[in-house]
Amino acid sequence: MGCCSSKSGRYAPNQANLWRSTGIVALRDRGLRVFPNEVLEVDRFIRTLDLTNNRLVMVPEEIGNFRNMQRLVLSQNSIERVPGSIGNIISLKILTLDSNKLRSLPDELGLLVTLEQLSVARNMLTSLPETLGNLKNLFILNVSNNNLKSLPQSLGSCLALEEMTANDNLIEDLPHTLCLLGRLKSLSLDNNGLNKLPPMLLKECRALQKISLYGNSISMAEFQQMEGYHEFETRRKNRFDKVIGSNVMINCRGLDEGISF
Q1: What CATH number did the domain enclosing 95 receive?
Q2: Based on the number of CB atoms within 10 Å of its own CB, is 150 exposed (0-12), middle (13-18) or buried (19 or more)?
Q3: What are the tens digits of pLDDT across the range 129-182?
Q4: Other CB atoms closer than 10 Å to residue 49's CB: what's the count?
């Protein structure tokens, strides 16, 4: 099952000891087709596992044995399925599965109650599990470049969520439960099929200060007529003033920074 870099078909003898001592396994750009046996054998010592840009087509069931892992990065592979055993990684805080071939995510993802960042951009997802609502510590979610037609109602239970990016999907309607996200600061929904927003979004999402709706059928005039628009505009301008005050370079949008149609 293992794949390696040495002539003997195994990693250097001290490699496993290094992984044990540092807790970090970084095997990017190695042409790996499967998880190396050597990695599976040190499962409980691993805190960070990065297998970006390989040729993996599956995640083994044994991934559930990595119970102390906090960061799992499997971007730029050909993974078609994530096993339900991933729900056993109770310490996981960051999960990145960008640029794979995923069509669905397991319901067990909702067991990752310590998860803070989830990115599944550039896959083939047609839906997200309702169990995402169990992720009470999630503050960054990126589901861009998929085939999503909707977002789960349960997202309204992700009360820690601060940044959600869902560009380049097929989303036609947003769940009204998004209005429950009192900490949401940034919402990006470019290039979808939206023609309206939840009526109370700007009023109830009291932290929202940046929104992007480019490529949808919502006009600026319609947006400005929403309840809570003036409060949103005040937050947006305050945020922009802080950016200027911090001497951050202003982009070409100038004072439009924070809103895009």
Answers
A1: 3.80.10.10
A2: middle
A3: 999 999 999 999 999 999 999 999 999 999 999 999 999 999 999 999 999 999
A4: 22
How far apart (Å, rounded) are the C-alpha atoms in residues 153 and 76? 29
Residue 136 within a domain = yes
For residue 10, the model assigns a pLDDT of 63
Domain for residue 8, yes or no? no
Tell me: pLDDT of 12 over 70: no
- The C-alpha R_g of the chain, in whole angstroms, comes to 21
pLDDT of residue 183: 98
The strand pairing partners of 95, in sequence order, are 72, 118
Reading the block at residue 226, the tokens are 């929403």
Sheet of strand 117-119, all strands in order from the earlier edge strand to the far edge:
24-26, 48-50, 71-73, 94-96, 117-119, 140-142, 163-165, 186-188, 210-212, 259-260
The type of residue at 57 is V
For 75, the domain range is 15-260
User: E strands of the chain, at which residues?
Assistant: 24-26, 48-50, 71-73, 94-96, 117-119, 140-142, 163-165, 186-188, 210-212, 259-260
Contact predicate 148/169, CB 8 Å: yes
Question: What's the number of CA atoms in the CB half-sphere (13 Å) around residue 240?
Answer: 16
221 neighbors 200 (Cβ within 8 angstroms): no
Instruction: Tell me the average pLDDT of the chain.
Output: 91
Contact in structure between 59 and 81 (CB atoms under 8 Å): yes
**What's the domain count of the chain?**
1
Residue 5 lies in a domain: no
For residues 187 and 161, the answer to whether their CB atoms sit within 8 Å is no
